[in-house]
Amino acid sequence: MNYLELSVATLTGIGAQTASRLEKLGIRTVQDLIFHLPLRYEDRTRVYPIGSLTAGMTVLVCGQVEFTDILPRGRKSLICRIGDGTGFISLKFFHFTANQHNALKPGTWLSCFAEVRHGYAELEMVHPEYAVIANPEAYVTETRLTPVYPLTEGLSQGVIRKAVKQALNLCSKEAQLLTDWIPESILKQCRYPSLADAIQTLHAPDESVTIEALQNGSVPALKRLAFEELLAHHLSLRSVKNKTKAWLAPSFGDSSEITLQHFLKRLPFKLTGAQQRVMAEIAADCRKAHPMMRLVQGDVGSGKTVVSAYAALLALTAGYQVAIMAPTELLAEQHFRNFAAWFDGFETRVVFLTGQLKGNPRKDVLQALADGSAGIVIGTHALFQDSVQFHRLGLCIIDEQHRFGVHQRLALMEKGQQSGVRPHQLVMTATPIPRTLAMLQYSDLDISIIDELPPGRTPIVTSVISAERRADVIARIAGWVAKKRQVYWVCTLIEESEVLQCEAAEKTAERLAEALSGVRVALIHGRMKAAEKDAVMQAFKNAQIDLLVATTVIEVGVDVPNAGLMIIENPERLGLSQLHQLRGRVGRGEGDSYCLLMYQAPLSDTARQRLGIIRDSNDGFVIAEKDLQLRGPGEVMGTRQTGSVNFKIADLSRDADLLEVIQQVGDTVFNQSPQAIQPLIDRWLGTSTNYSEV
Ligand code: ADP
Ligand code: MG
Q1: Which atom of ligand 1 is nearest to the CA of 275?
Q2: Which atom of ligand 1 is nearest to the CA of 271?
Q3: How far is the CA of 305 from the centre of ligand 2 (A)?
């Protein structure tokens, strides 16, 4: 009998109701329970002198009641002041019973556990866990740290702790059943404890384990499990890759030299070496009868669009359709204009599809895709809709792919599937991520890098200045506009609310228009209708607008070469990659260009350092690497950007060092112990992130 597979309902104290609550957390078996690891720990192993407390600590104290009172003012509350000879602290209760009140008589000793906060007059604990104790000398603290588990409605820490204890007992009796899938050699090399020991340590740390060591990740048991979890994610993505590589895809063959020359001749520039190299990599992929799964990473302005157009050309000449998906309408529109121009004269239609398109124009587009008269469609998420049917989809191009998750990308391929043949996939991103992170995040893709900018671009000169010098900045705009060049002013707000962001941008635009008479100021933000945005962007491109005030909607892709000055307000609020992306809107033409990072004083040390990184480098990869060192990968990747992978225990900002070897260990597992792959994935990935099930 393998106890790991036993249902949790077989444990003492777990009835049908608790079992169904545990199931909500993805816990069905004893194994699931064992891998339900603590979120954090509480330290009830030491009693802190009250005089040593500061706000923010979560600690155990013992004290003697000085007085207890009901405060009628405001919200009725029970206040109990306790002291231990080193100091006093107030306990505050908003819900309480008469019995409770009576039990807290002056002179009574209490043990209390809670977070310490700033109170009205002194430090306080709100609704502490407390117990009446005989006296502080006789009080026995816990010997181990107390684990705190992720919960769900109706479940208590007590219930989970009891259940885990039973599971661990089973585990220690029959440890051999808990298979250690990490190769022996790696366990030795990294001096990792066995799986059973590691699990035991995390659920019930022994006396030698301190809370600080758990927080900074220096506990070997924790490192080992974090490593195993990251490996499982990596293996899951690699399995996806292996699976997709076994699918069938149309082979595009070699497009005729004539078509190719015809296309290249229409381009107003000569391709860079990097562009040509990546194009060759794409062509080699598309010749195969299995799907291309390629990511093109290239800094802003490196010319990814034309590379993707080349891939589209290969598909078209082989008689297949192409779908291009962009994250915003603005960007989709820009691509549409580019592609429409580049493919003008080809015997096919280039169509545009977003959620905004309604009525007959929409019907027309859908019809053209279904009957194949449209060879290229460019759009937003709207391309996912059921009503969109393709005649013969051969290639999906996804721009700024960090906005889309693995699932979404695969869904688009599924959509294009026809009798077992699936389209090729090309994804593009201007968010460079350090090599180590790429191994985790993009393990399902082959990677091409465009590491060269088109010639003739002068680097952007970036300066960091305080908002107190706003007047100087405005004067600079006036001078710039007098030289017939254009300016971006980017407003950022801490609030997530788009409404507030737009309001702030509106106010800024009004004020700038007042301060700069004769300068044509316009506004663009995310709440404007697509047609309005389009009109503004067109006018800016046509130089009918001098100063464009924008929210971060212009972040991706928009291209106006004559705009060479950008002011970014409150840059300290944005991620470095996002700042670099924004700044990439300037420096697209041949003239010199500037970016002013106008911060709100005072700046924290880290913020100052981060803005310094942006000022000193124009290379997205360098910026990403430095940001990684400074802030840790969680921040660099940004949960919003990754489609947020939830790790049970790994923390990318703490465990970044583990990523170095993941790829190599992944190779070892694939080559030497492939039987370990599926069990590792099952053990660590819930169904939500289990890519192998796609
Ligand atoms: P990104 O990589 O940021 O998507 P784009 O594809 O939008 O960059 O290209 C940025 C600008 O550079 C566009 O105006 C594009 O036409 C131009 N461009 C692309 N390739 C070259 C090249 N080889 N030489 C000169 N300009 C180029
Ligand atoms: Mg682009």
Answers
A1: 23
A2: 23
A3: 6
3-state SS class at 566: strand
Q: Is the CB of 583 under 6 A from ligand 1?
A: no
Q: In what order do the strands lie in the sheet with 88-93?
A: 117-118, 123-126, 88-93, 77-83, 58-71, 109-115, 129-133
SS3 track for 198-243: HHHHHHCCCCCCCHHHHHHCCCHHHHHHHHHHHHHHHHHHHHHHHH
User: Residues with Cβ within 5 Å of ion ligand 2?
Assistant: 557
- Ligand number nearest CA of 450 is 1
CATH 2.40.50.140 residue ranges for the chain: 46-141
pLDDT of residue 361: 94
- DSSP alpha helices (H): ranges in 288-405? 304-317, 329-342, 359-371
| Atom 24 in ligand 1: residue holding the nearest Cα | 454
* Percentage of residues of the chain with pLDDT beyond 70: 93
Tell me which residue has its CA closest to atom 15 in ligand 1. 303
Q: What is the CATH number of domain 461-617?
A: 3.40.50.300
Task: Find, among 569, 641, 660, 550, the residue nearest to 234 by Cα.
Answer: 660
pTM for the model: 0.73
| Cα gap 104→89, rounded to integer Å | 14
DSSP labels for 504-520? HHHHHHHHHHHHSTT--
Report pLDDT digits (tens) over 26-79. Answer: 899 898 899 999 988 999 999 999 999 999 899 999 999 999 999 877 778 999
- Ligand 1 pocket test: pick from 270, 300, 305 the residue with the most ligand atoms within 8 Å of its Cβ: 305
Options 3.40.50.300, 2.40.50.140, 3.20.20.30, 3.10.50.30; CATH of 246-450: 3.40.50.300
**CATH 3.40.50.300 boundaries in the chain:** 246-450, 461-617
Cβ atoms 45, 145 nearer than 8 A: yes
Q: Which amino acid is at 687?
A: T
pLDDT tens profile 263-284: 888 888 999 999 999 999 999 9
Q: Ligand 2 centroid vs 494 CA: distance in angstroms?
A: 26
Q: How far does residue 305's CA lie from ligand 1's centre (Å)?
A: 7
Nearest CA to ligand 1 atom 13: 303
Write down the H helix ranges in 1-141.
16-24, 30-34, 98-103
- Residue ranges, the chain, pLDDT below 50: 633-644, 688-689, 692-694
Residues 489/510, Cβ–Cβ less than 8 Å = no
The DSSP code for 444 is: T
Dist CA 234 CA 221 (whole Å): 20
Distance (Å, rounded) from C-alpha 443 to C-alpha 236?
9
Residue appearing with tokens 């997205």: 620
Q: Which CATH number fits domain 46-141: 3.40.50.1820, 2.60.40.10, 2.40.50.140, 3.40.50.1220?
A: 2.40.50.140
